Amino acid sequence: MTGKKKQSNNEIKYDSTLQLDDIDNLRRELDKEKEKAKSYLANWQRSQADFANYKKRAAEEKEGIVDFANSVFIATLLPIVDDMEKALASLSPELENLNWVEGIKLIFTNFKDSLQKQGLSEINAVGTPFDPHFHNAVMRQNGQEGIVLKEIQKGYKFKNRVLRPSMVIVGEEKTKETGEETQKEE
């Protein structure tokens, strides 16, 4: 004999049953670990999506704060725009063609263009239906009912948000009882 012991049939059966039990246990453990891995992966993916949403929300909030700050700053410039428009509109014909006046007109045009590039736009009022979101009615006059007849002060929007509503005169039909024009201050 070579020194090896022969195993009996009973021992082989016992050993193979033990191996099958070990394999089943290992498979169960493997399945558990696979479930854990799936859970970890799902949690990681959820965390990654939450972080991406956080970054997007933070960027939107930052943009909102910048837009608000810009709108406040631009709102402080609107009286200057109004004053320049009034000054240029009141120039006598003799002064309009002078070089320095042309230079001021050019500077003012460039200034308004810069504001428009930042998101400022005028609210078109005359001839449009009165809209309380864009117009502030200061008076009513005889004219087509509910239509803006005249603009007293220009209104402006900043990136589709009303910065200052237009001050307007709104049309009103003649009263049928007296046939008189009605002028009321609101």
Name the descriptors.
alpha+beta; 4-stranded mixed sheet; 3-stranded antiparallel sheet; Hemagglutinin Ectodomain, Chain B; Nucleotide Exchange Factor Grpe, Chain A, domain 2; single chain; 186 residues; 2 domains; elongated
Furnish the topology, listing elements before pairings.
Layout: H1 9-89, H2 93-96, H3 99-118, E1 120-123, E2 135-142, E3 148-153, E4 155-158, E5 161-164, E6 166-172, E7 184-185
Parallel strand pairs: 2-6
Antiparallel strand pairs: 1-4, 2-7, 3-6, 4-5
Helix pairs in contact: 1-3
Description:
This protein is an alpha+beta fold. It folds into two domains: 7-118, Hemagglutinin Ectodomain, Chain B; 121-186, Nucleotide Exchange Factor Grpe, Chain A, domain 2 (Roll). It has three helices and seven strands, in the order αααβββββββ. The chain has helices at 9-89, 93-96, 99-118; strands at residues 120-123, 135-142, 148-153, 155-158, 161-164, 166-172, 184-185. The protein has a four-stranded mixed sheet with strand order 3-6-2-7, with no helix packed on it. A three-stranded antiparallel sheet has the order 1-4-5. The model has no long low-confidence stretch (mean pLDDT 86).
> From the coordinates shown, what is the CATH architecture of the largest domain?
Alpha-Beta Complex
CATH fold field value of the largest domain: Hemagglutinin Ectodomain, Chain B
How many domains make up the coordinates?
2
* Portion of residues within helices: 55-70%
Distance between the termini: 122 Å
Strand order of the largest sheet: 3-6-2-7
Strand content: 15-25%
State the order of secondary-structure elements, H for helix, E for strand: HHHEEEEEEE
Mean pLDDT: 86
Question: What is the count of β-strands?
Answer: 7
